[in-house]
User: What shape does this take?
Amino acid sequence: IRFGTNINFYLFVHDPVEAMEIVRNKFQLRYVEMVTGLPVDIPLFALHRETFKRYHTEIGEKARKIGITIGSVQTFFRDNWTMSHPIREFQEIGRMAYEAAVCQAECYIKTGHDVDHVGGHLSTVLCRYFEDKRLTRKLINDAVEHWKLIMKLAHDSGLKNVALETMSTLRELPTTFEQTSSILTMLNEYHEKNSGTTVPTTLLLDTGHGVTKEECPDERENDLSSWVDKFPHSIVEIHLKNTDKGRAANWPFCGEYLKKGIVNVSKVLDIIRKLRVSEVALHMEYSGKRGRLNEENKTIDLISESADYVKNILIKKGYAYDESSDTWSA
Assistant: This one.
């Protein structure tokens, strides 16, 4: 296990290097997942490509100096949702979010980081269009074709795979076992035919995601263990967050939230043992509240306490930390 944190808490609050200093010195972690930086990164990538590359190269260099490893890059807040929009030009803008993430990852690779993948969900179909099942099938296929191009770009940039994140409503793809299996099969059949020019598509699970009973009454769809049983060779990353029974909250692992939340870290670690991959990234993902200094400072404290809590559970479950590789092994 590579245990670290997604650093989406930095957006609109901290400089990314400052955020990494917080991760290293306050959270006592070394492994991070970078995110695409709304609202700047994607327009900067589109309009000033060389400035974008210099900016992220500098981030990569400074991260290494403070002892941080960037292991993946994640789209932030549905950057790519328009890849399934009926207007073609909207789709291309959505794909650009992934193109920017791949370019960002390549900058980090060139500065010595072992970046495994970029990740995010396939796309979002707006409610109005989702009612038309024929149109929805076409829009999903459009998004799949865009994803194939990202698989090619990822290969050329030195990435190992592209991670598909499972979501929480049927129109945000993929959400169910059936959706995930169908999309994953299409993408990896394409990879098998083009293994020399593309990377495979893997899976990213989130402990705070889960489809509601109104959309899917099968409770197994919300069971992390069932997902691991169905896709043991595909899951390369898990976002670790606490949530409520309705899976609408984003909570940390400390204080009152340990009683209020439904995610049990000890059980998550037991489930991870069933994976059939050589390594899995376990990233905390808590963004907190922005716009008030006291809440922004509180977010840092809550993530720090959560990191300590998870590390203590890892030790109790028999995991040993290897400082040289920054990994936890059973």
Observations:
- The CA atoms of residues 288 and 299 lie 5 Å apart.
- The radius of gyration is 19 Å.
- The chain has a mean pLDDT of 96.
